[in-house]
Structures are given as structure tokens and as C-alpha cells.
Amino acid sequence: MTTFVQVHGTGPDGWFWQRVARRLRAAGSDVYTPSLTGVGDRRHLRDCHANLATHITDVANLLFYEDISDVVLVGHSYAGMVITGVASVVPERLELLVYLDAYVPDEGESEVDLWTPEMRAAMEADRGDGMRPPPPPSLVGIDDPLLADWYLARVTPHPFATFTQPVPSGNARSEAIPRANISCTAGRLTSLYERFAEKARQSGWAVRTITTGHEAELIAPEEVARLLLELADSRG
Q: Quick one: pLDDT at residue 40?
């Protein structure tokens, strides 16, 4: 049985994975979808000054307290930063890292370092009270009005400090963990994330594509689940 731990990006929380998780569980997998501190159903903790290290600890603690190993750790969007950090902290519990249309940082890089100058200026302008507003449905590829309404009712602002803190230094064990990339090839964010898919190809990772917008978990959950199971099965 494969154990998946799936980490959400900016705006959503654990609910974001429910459509994919149902399909993975139906296929016999064990699935965890943690919510990160300060957002979604943990938005009451937004004053706890959460940063990237907080979110790395959220996931690392889940792995410890649930006592799960041989984990396929999946990160979407911002969570590419998180799963990279988790790999540096508890590599012994991980079997595979999957970056789903996600940032792929090098050691010492923050998410801000990976933004374009135009994106950085726009994000800084929206910084406000230290929380970044959630992305609008049209930006992330959600065109269906009913799905857009469902999404907007649940997304929350995200702690800006998570974007400015660099990923922690890795170690030899973390570098040995196999990695894969799933790239969304349609929508307004393609140019931002396709460079990380190319980076993955050049690094020799398994790379898969989905012709959909950025929020593939909501738009194409069956395809996301199929690719995750395929990548997990290819480990051996």
C-alpha cells in the first residue's frame, strides 16, 4: 500500500486535495492532506507568525506523530518549497517527492527568489497586513462558475513570511530521494512553472504533463490521481 502525504499551495488547505484523495483511497492508498498553520481550517492561527520553517514542521510532525514512512510526499505550487524542506529534515521517512506544478528551489533559495521582477513588485504591493490574498480563480485555471464559487468560499490569505524564508540546507540522504515533476501545460501560470519542469528534466527526474490550468487537483482530479499512482508504482 502506498502512503501519500499531499501538501497544498497558496490559498487552499487540506480540502484542496479531497477530489484526488478520494480516488487514491479507492485505489487502496493511504492518504494524508494536512492543513498548514495560519490558513484554511487553521486560519485562527494566522497571528502565530508562521513562516516556511513552520510549514515544514507541520508536515514533519505529521510524519512523526502518525509514524509513517516510505511516504510519497506531494507538493503543489508553494508547497514545492515545503516538501524540499521536509526532505532536508526527515529524509528517512520519504520514498519519493512529487512536485505538482510547483516551485523547485535550490539550497538557500526562497520563493521570492524564484519570482519574476514583475511578479515580485505585484506581490509586494499586495502584502498589506503580512498576508497575501488568495489567487483569483481565473489566474489558476478555474473557469467553471460553480467550481469557482466553491473555491472562493474556502481559500484564505497566506502568510507572506513563508515566501521570504529560504529552504533549509539539505544533506546527503535528502539528495538521494527520487523526485518527479507533474507540469500543468495550460493557463496563465504556465510560463512561471514550466521552467521548473525543464529543470526537472535536466536533472533526470520523471516528468509528466497535464493539459490543464494550475489548480489541477480541482480541475482534473482523476488525471492527477492516475499520474500519482503511476509515479508511485514506478519506484520499484
A: 75
